[in-house]
């Protein structure tokens, strides 16, 4: 793509980066076929190629964002399916991030939108506030049908079962069972530790059983992805620095072999810390080190080369598992084989889902900000999953779990299934179906 940025504009590092990304686009349109919003809406401006034109015009000419531009950029899920498809290597993730930061600085959203975004940015990254909001949503759940679309989605979330806080949440060192073979930090997350406490508990059980010491570092918290994708760079960088400080202290102490992450949306962001803070002299090197150590739990287990003997006593009965690869896993981190291979090694009958490259509509808080589009993608994904006739669904991201699950589709995190196969308890959501199956160890 030909660009015409002025020298003054290119003096801004964000603009200079965006210009280089834009120049790689050759208008081929391959991205349109794999873009969930274009497939759903059929509007060129709701495709990556269309959004790239809008971003170019806005940034090149230093224009304040218009209502039209904001509408189409807000509709982007940041699923990055286009990045996986693009033959030219367009770095769409950082381009859309830069555009959103520009919008945040130069556009005045309607009052209701501003208040909702501020509420989400305040509540969701804070487990205490999020837990309180879930309790409030549960009380309001009977009246969800009377509420506007966005509020309806938030209130419906309150109808979910909310487990009590987990023992894993607090800062601590959890020793390996037997000889210590490694040492990792775990990101316990924000929404995940409220909605699905079993994920972190399963991770700790499995890792310690494999001889890995697990550190819940003091000061680590939300990864910053939620506010980052809203264009709130200062807040996302502040949250990132808190994690970097916490993990750097452990790296400088007894050291870390990896920083294990169980929510792929968080993983994509933590792996990008080095880029996010590349211009910060005080944090650039530390951020790069943290990004280097960040591993999805399945990625780390694959590197450990977990022996099949770990699952030799699995007593789950080889249920049929439809594996849903979260966008942040397959497109954001390019992790495709490890989760599937580990599940197969653990004795599960893994089946593929049609249109597996398309987003389920969760995308952080996208399902709350764009409920109509998210709902269409949700039903499309559920239909494709049901067509596989699975006993259960596996995925590696809490957002996808909440978005996909229904009474007939039990969605379990991959690490919970691996822990179960290695001798851990039956996941709570499966106990009614597998009540007769007891842990092997």
UniProtKB/TrEMBL annotation:
It is an enzyme of class 1 (oxidoreductase). The keyword Electron transport applies. It holds the Pfam family Fer4_8. One of its GO terms (molecular function) is 4 iron, 4 sulfur cluster binding. Its EC number is 1.1.99.14. It catalyses: glycolate + A = glyoxylate + AH2; (R)-lactate + A = pyruvate + AH2. Binds 2 [4Fe-4S] clusters. Keywords: 4Fe-4S, Electron transport, Iron, Iron-sulfur, Metal-binding, Repeat, Transport. Its cofactor is [4Fe-4S] cluster. Residues 16-44, 67-96 form the 4Fe-4S ferredoxin-type domain. Component of a complex that catalyzes the oxidation of glycolate to glyoxylate. This is Glycolate oxidase iron-sulfur subunit. It comes from Thalassospira profundimaris.
């Amino acid at each position: 793509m030909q660009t015409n940025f002025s020298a003054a504009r290119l003096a801004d590092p964000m603009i200079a980066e965006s210009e280089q990304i834009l120049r790689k686009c050759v208008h081929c349109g391959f991205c349109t076929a794999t873009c969930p919003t274009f497939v759903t809406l059929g509007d060129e401006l709701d495709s990556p190629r269309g959004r790239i034109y809008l971003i170019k015009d806005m940034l090149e000419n230093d224009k304040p964002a218009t209502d039209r531009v904001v509408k189409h950029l807000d509709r982007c899920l940041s699923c990055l399916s286009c990045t996986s498809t693009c033959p030219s290597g367009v770095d769409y993730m950082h381009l859309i991030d830069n555009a959103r930061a520009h919008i945040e600085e130069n556009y005045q959203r309607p009052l209701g939108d501003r208040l909702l975004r501020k509420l989400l940015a305040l509540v969701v990254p804070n487990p205490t506030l999020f837990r309180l909001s879930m309790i409030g949503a549960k009380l309001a759940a009977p009246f969800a049908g009377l509420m506007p679309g966005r509020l309806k989605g938030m209130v419906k979330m309150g109808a979910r079962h909310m487990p009590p806080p987990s023992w894993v949440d607090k800062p601590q060192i959890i020793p390996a069972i037997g000889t210590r073979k490694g040492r990792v930090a775990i990101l316990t997350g924000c929404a995940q530790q409220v909605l699905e406490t079993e994920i972190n508990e399963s991770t700790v059980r499995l890792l310690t059983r494999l001889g890995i010491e697990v550190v819940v570092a003091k000061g680590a918290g939300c990864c910053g992805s939620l506010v980052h994708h809203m264009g709130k760079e200062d807040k996302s960088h502040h949250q990132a620095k808190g994690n970097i400080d916490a993990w750097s202290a452990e790296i400088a102490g007894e050291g870390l072999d990896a920083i294990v992450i169980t929510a792929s949306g968080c993983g994509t962001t933590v792996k990008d810390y080095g880029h996010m803070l590349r211009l910060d002299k005080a944090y650039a090197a530390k951020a790069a080190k943290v990004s280097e150590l960040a591993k999805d739990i399945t990625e780390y287990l694959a590197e450990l080369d977990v022996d099949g003997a770990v699952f030799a006593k699995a007593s789950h009965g080889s249920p049929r598992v439809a594996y849903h690869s979260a966008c942040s896993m397959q497109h954001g981190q390019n992790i495709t084989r490890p989760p599937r291979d580990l599940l197969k090694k653990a004795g599960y009958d893994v089946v593929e889902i049609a249109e597996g490259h398309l987003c389920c509509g969760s995308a952080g808080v996208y399902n709350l900000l764009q409920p109509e589009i998210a709902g269409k993608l949700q039903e499309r994904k559920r239909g494709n999953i049901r067509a596989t006739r699975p006993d259960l669904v596996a995925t590696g991201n809490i957002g996808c779990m909440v978005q996909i699950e229904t009474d007939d589709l039990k969605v379990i995190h991959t690490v919970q299934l691996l822990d179960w196969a290695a001798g851990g308890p039956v996941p709570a959501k499966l106990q009614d179906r597998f009540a007769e199956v007891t842990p092997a160890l």
